[in-house]
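Bump. Still looking for Beta-propeller domain-containing protein C-alpha cells.
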Amino acid sequence: MSILSHSNDNFEEQDTLRLQELLQEISGGIPVPESISPDNMKKKLHAPQRQFPIQKYIAAAACLVLVLGCVVTVSLFAGMHLGMAKSSGQNMTGGASSSSCAAVASDMMPESLEAENNLSARELTDMQAASYDDVAKALAPIAQRNVTLGQGIIYDENGNKVNPPTAGGGPQPGTGGQESSPAAGENTVDSSQKYNPGTAGTNDTGDQTNNQVDGVVEADIVKTDGNYIYYSNSDTVNIVKMEENGGMEQVSTIKDKEFCYTLDMFLEGSNLVVLSSSNTSLDRQRKMLSDSADTVQSTVKATFYDVSDPAVPAVERVITQDGDYQDARMIDGMLYLVSQQYLPLEKTVDQLQPADYVPAVTDSTQASGALLSADSIYLLPTVESACYNIVSAVNVREPGGAVNTRAILGSSSQMYVSTNSMYLVCDTFDDAAQISYSNVYKLELSGLNIVMTASGRVKGSILNQFSMDEYDGYFRIATNLFDGRKDRRSNNLYVLDENLELVSYLENMAQGEELKSVRFMGESAYLVTFKQVDPLFAVDLSDPAKPQILGELKIPGFSSYLHPVSENLLVGVGYDTKEVNDGYGSTFTVTGGIKLSLFDVSDKADPKEVTSVVLGDCGSYSELMNDHKAFLFYEEKGLIGIPVTLTKNATPGRGYYESRYENSFNGYVLFQVTGSKLEEAGRITHQSEEAQKNLEQEMDSALTIHRGVYKGDYIYTLSDLKAKSTSLSDGKDVKEIALA
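Sorry for the wait, here they are.
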C-alpha cells in the first residue's frame, strides 16, 4: 500500500503536493519553518489524524538548503554582550568568558528592557476585569478593526468615516445613530446566568512520560501504571493489560462519539483523565444564550474515568471549556488544563452580548455551566489579538471537587510549568525597532488557586518550552533574535528574579546562528545553535548575577532535542549535515540522517562529543523532532528508544523536488548507553514482511510507531493499528495484538 493512499488519511495527496508547492514558491528554496510545514499544516487541518502519511515530504523539507554560499569563518561571539541589571548593584568586569568570546562588559540593561515593562502585584491585580464592560472595552479596538477591514470602511485623519456602507450591518449615512442592538453592559449574562452542559455520557508511580520538570506530569497519548497501558490512537483509548513474559491482552476501549478526537491523557492512581476536542458541543449551548453566536467555536473536554477495574472504565465527571487545546500539566494530583480561544469578533462590541466574548466552562457535577465571572479575567496591558488563554484547575483525586478557572485576554505561544508556577509567553513585534519580544506572564499555582503575580519582557523569541526554566527562585529564558534593521540573527539568555525583573543576561551569542535546542540542568544551561556546524555551548549559571559561557564544541550537524542521561552525560538527537557542491562553484548545506550524539559535559569548559550514531540518510524523520514525549529513557537499563522513518540512497538538492531518496526502515530504534558509549541495541517494526521489502510503495502510515513503554525485560511499542511486545534480552518479538 502506498504511503499516500492509506484509507485512514483524510488529507488528500493533491492537497499535500499543492501545499508543498506553494511553500516552496513562497520560500524561494529557504527551509520552511516547522510551524507551517506540511506536517503541522496537516495536523491543524485534520487534527483527528495523528499519522503522517506525508512524512516523506516533511523529511524532504529537512533536506532543503540550510545555508548557501561558501563557508566564511567568523568569531561567533564578536560583539557579544554580558550584563547585569542595574538593580543588582554590581558592575561587570571586562574580559571574555571563553577563548572564543570577545565579550563586551556592561552594567546597563539591554535596550528596551527597562523596568516599566514589569508590573507590580498591585498592578496585576488591577488587570482583573471589574465587569464585562471592561472586557468589552479591551476588545473594542480589535472588533472595530475587524469590522472595518470586513466592510471596507475608511477613516480620515480625525477618525471620521469617509465612506460608511449604505447597506448591511452598520449605521446609514446621515443618521448619526447606531443600529438598535444592546449596548455593552445591557442584558448582560453574569456568572449566575447558566446553561445546561449537555449529556455527559454514559501519585502515578508507573508514569513513563518524558516530563521536563520533576514533579510536573505532562499529558500524553500513552500512560501506564506498570500493569496496564492506556493508549490513544486518535479517537479511541485502548486499555491493554501487560501480562507476564511479555504477553498482552486488550481489556477494553473508550470511545467518545460526541467529541471529534482524543488529544492527551493523565493517569493518577485509579483515575484516568481523557482530554478530547470538539467544535460543536459548546457552540450549540451558546446558541441558547445568544443568537449572535453564529460562529463555531472549539471546545476542550476533560472526561474523568474510574479505572479501578480497567475492563469496565466508568465516567465520573465531564468538564468542558472553550477554546483549542494548548497543553496541560498535573502537579500532585492537581490538573491544570490550558486552552486558547480565538474570538472572530465580526461585529462591534456594542452589537455583542457577553456570551459572544466571555469564555465558558461546564461541569457535569453541577446542575449547569457558566460564563466566567468578570473578575476571573485578566486584561493584559496591550491586547493585540482577540484571544484568551484559559486555565482551569481541578483535583483529579476528588471527582466531585471544585473547578477554578482564570482567563487571560491576550494570546501566548508557549508555556512552561514548574511545581508552583506557570509561565505564559506572548510574542510581540516592534515595527519601529524591527525586532521581536517575548512578554512573560507568571501565574502562581497553589492547588485550585491561580493568581497572576508578575510580568516581564525579554528580546527575541523562544523555541519551545525547553527554552525556559525555573531554578532556585530565578527564571531563565533563552531566545533567538532577528534584528530586521541589521539583517542579523543572534541568541540571548536572560536571568530574571521571582518578580520577572532582569538580573543578568548574555546577548549576541552565536551571531548569524539559529537556535536549535536548549536544556537547563540545575546551575548549567546547554544551547545548540546552527548555521553550518553545530556549536554546543555550556553556560554556567551558578551565580545568577554573572552567567558565563564556559565551553563551546563545534561538530557537524545539530541537535533538536537534548536529554540528560546522567549528571555528566547529555544525549542530543537531531540531524547530521553535509556540504554539497552544486557543480557551479558554490556549496550549500543539507541535512543528512538522524544523528544521536553523546556529550560528556563533566568539564563544562571543554564539552566533548564522545560517541555519535547516524541513522539513515537525507529525508529521515522522527516524531521526536516535534514532540519530546516520543523519547523513551529506560534509566534502569540505560536504554533509549525513538520512533523513526529512515531513508537510503539519498540525492540531496537545493530545492524540495531536487531531493531524492528511498524509505529503508519504519519503526522503533533502541540504543544502549554504557558509560561514555552509545550504540544501537535493536530495531522494532510494525510493518508487514512484504512492506519491509518495498517500503517506498507498501509502507502503511497507520503502522508507524508513535510510542514505546517498558516493563521488566520487555518493550511495548504502539502504532495506530497495533501493539507489539519485544524481549530486551534477545530482541525477539513476543506478541502482537490489533488495536481498535
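The longest strand covers residues 660-674.

Edit: fixed formatting.
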